[in-house]
Amino acid sequence: MKYIPPAIFAVLVIFVATNLPAPAFAQKERVVVTDFDLGPAQKNSIQLPIGWALKVWHGRADIRLIQDENRHLKVLRLRSEKASVSIYREVKLDLKKFPVLSWKWKVTKLPEGADARNVESDDQAAGVYVVFPRFPSFINSQFIGYVWETSVPKGTILRSRKNPMVHYIVVRSGVDDLDKWITEKRNVMDDYQRVFGTAAPKVGGIALMIDTDDTHSDAESYFANVEFKGDVSRASAAVQDDRFAKATDSTAWVYE
Asked: What CA–CA distance (Å, rounded) separates 11 from 17?
């Protein structure tokens, strides 16, 4: 992940919070962050879905809402050529009510040589970041990034070498599941307790990211149906051997 200077991220968060429409819609059992099939692109844009803001850390954004012909749904496609790009939207919710984050993703190309354990190769083909704003200043905001890694083993939990407030949980790694739509479920409330050692505060936002600027390589990923749920019955849970340890495999369903 590209280093995010706290002051710059604070500006981004403030901009998003003051310029976007209502962040998500709640139902009894879930909070839908996005359903790209229902949300058209912003006016005069073929890139961003409504309600999301773009941040280009490095390079040029290649973001599109496209029709997935196999699944007959509109999905978000991210491509990166030596770039670092994210889209963000405000999502305010209490994890005590909606502890489970669910999303669909597919990776078709990994950044070559990427490895988050090294500063010079901290890139990922796909990441879903949960933002925990800490008041009165956004400088201390915390992040949990659920990432698809190239080299770091699946289940690893580690702190970003560039930003100590960012912690990665490696949900997928390597080429075994490339070109497949996979649904992930994570109990964010439990993950926060495991990573930061305290009860989880309220969520303030969600970011989707692709990052290949450190390895100067290319990557491609797709996202769909991001939502928080109240049902924890099938959410994955990591086993804590130590603070940054390997975790058990996450629950997933594969869509061929």
From this structure: 10
